[in-house]
Amino acid sequence: MTGKLPSIVIVGRPNVGKSTLFNRLTGTRRSIVTNEPGITRDRIYGTANWEGRAFEVVDTGGIVPEEKAGIPGEILRQARVAIESAARVVQVVDGRAGILPLDIDLAQLLRKAGKPPVLAVNKVDSAKQTEMAAQFYELGDDVFPVSAEHGFGVDMLLDALTDNFPRGEAPEAPPETHIAIIGRPNVGKSTLLNRLVGAERSIVSPEPGTTRDAVDTVVEREGKSYRFLDTAGIRRKGKTNLMAEKLSVMMARRHLERADVAVLVADASMGVTSHDATIAGYAEQSGRSVIVVMNKWDLATDAAREKSEREKKVAVEGSGFDAAKLLAQYEPMVRQKLKFLSYAPVVFLSATTGDRVERLYALIDRVAVARKRRISTGELNRWLASVDLERGTSPASREVKIFYMTQATTAPPTFVLFTNQTKPLHFSYQRFLENRLRAAFDFTGTPIRFTMRLKKRSQRSHVQKRSDRRGK
Ligand code: GDP
Questions:
Q1: 235 and 117 within one domain
Q2: Cα separations (Å) of 186 from 27, 221, 242, 300?
Q3: Which residues pair with 399 in a beta bridge?
């Protein structure tokens, strides 16, 4: 994940407090690493700094998948991981339980592998217990009584561990894009998620403050991070159709709260249904950037091809099947049903064949950037001066004068119009303005908001002058 940082690898038999120590060392909650969707592996990463030295912390064997209680197997695997990658190995033992045969086996294995462990004697909360730690010298020369839970002794442990590490800060984590995959049941959300996560390196991390099974999947790709929200929730299915439908709406609303980008999935073989439109409505209200995915495009093209072949048999001069033409006919239908999402790009793809799925990443980047785009006041007013505002005004809105504008916030981009009245802009005038703005700046996928501010008559000439000056 972080390239060449030295790594401290935490090993130990189950329940000695490895993950508590991991949290203590990294200051973060553990994340579960996975390379294949649905399969969590047993290595957990984090980065940390101590006294100006950056390093990676790896918690091994926190989770034993399939092979329940396969302790010897687990020890071997831990040892292997340690041999491969560790700069230092910390073996965590339980100070209250004393030395157990498994502790001895593990320490021996590590020594044989040329990585004598630093022993963290955990669950030592008092001076009296510190004495008990002495027995662990049997396992190695470096023994540190600690309380991972309370932090006791951790400073000394870290001093010893990082002693030889080079000085330098950990590289900053790239900003993450939060993505909610939403849509009604069976449109292919889980299949699409599997495709997107597929070959990428990914991490499953618990969602803070929620139930244990709510986990996000973070994909790192070309130096960027994508957090797919509550991926366990995306895979969860309702037992009945009705339940599944209700669940999908509930999930959509919940996922949208944390999202930057909503990927709204619909089934192209069925077209946009009213339930799709309901969920799309929530996406629109949420102010998140939206990408509409028409999935199962393979089915839609197959059906169209069959139909055209059938027709060809009847009419000898029937038109041949044309995939591009189908797309050109299909998109307006989608737009028609989702009028209120006119800013959202529509992608036709197939999650099962993988056709065009890769493109989604570039599009996610684009809409995420657009959402955070900030246009300087000078640039905005230069643009405003270039717009033929008269063209957008109807007789009803003619008396509205826009003197000046600024961008108040991003995510979504929100513009303040300084006008001669606070009455909301006429719908068609606002749309005109929005279209012009979108033509000049890339706001793909993100909604745009306008608010009105009254400029007092006395301020107007001043404002006018300022905007003139900026316009030059
Ligand atoms: P979810 O409920 O939205 O998560 O939907 P699933 O991912 O479980 O998919 C529902 C069904 O549609 C499954 O049988 C998938 O195999 C199928 N499916 C998903 N995507 C595609 C696709 O692009 N093409 C085809 N032909 N089938 C798909």
A1: no
A2: 39, 27, 13, 15
A3: none
What whole-number percentage of the chain has pLDDT above 70? 78
For ligand 1, the distance from its centroid to the CA atom of residue 287, given in whole angstroms, is 27
Which residue segment(s) compose the domain that 427 sits in?
Answer: 377-453
Ligand 1 proximal residues by C-beta, below 6 Å: 183, 185-191, 295-296, 298-299, 350-352
CB 94 within 8 A of CB 123: yes
Assess whether 23 and 117 both reside in one domain: yes
Which CATH number do you get for residue 99? 3.40.50.300
Residues 214 and 333 in one domain: yes
Distance CA 201, CA 267 (A): 28
Considering the domain architecture, whether residues 200 and 328 belong to the same structural domain is answered as yes
pTM of the model: 0.66
Residue 469: inside a domain: no
Mean pLDDT: which of 25-34, 291-300, 321-330 is highest? 291-300
CA of 227 to the centre of ligand 1 (A): 21
Q: Are residues 349 and 417 in the same domain?
A: no
Choose among 293, 55, 72: nearest CA to 184.
293
pLDDT tens for 222-276 read 878 899 998 877 877 777 888 888 888 988 998 998 899 999 999 999 999 999 9
Q: What CATH number has the domain bearing residue 386?
A: 3.30.300.20
**Residue 202 and residue 219: Cα distance in Å, rounded?**
4
Contact 50, 158 (CB under 8 A): yes
- Ligand 1: residue of 352, 353, 357 to mutate (most ligand atoms within 8 A of CB) is 352
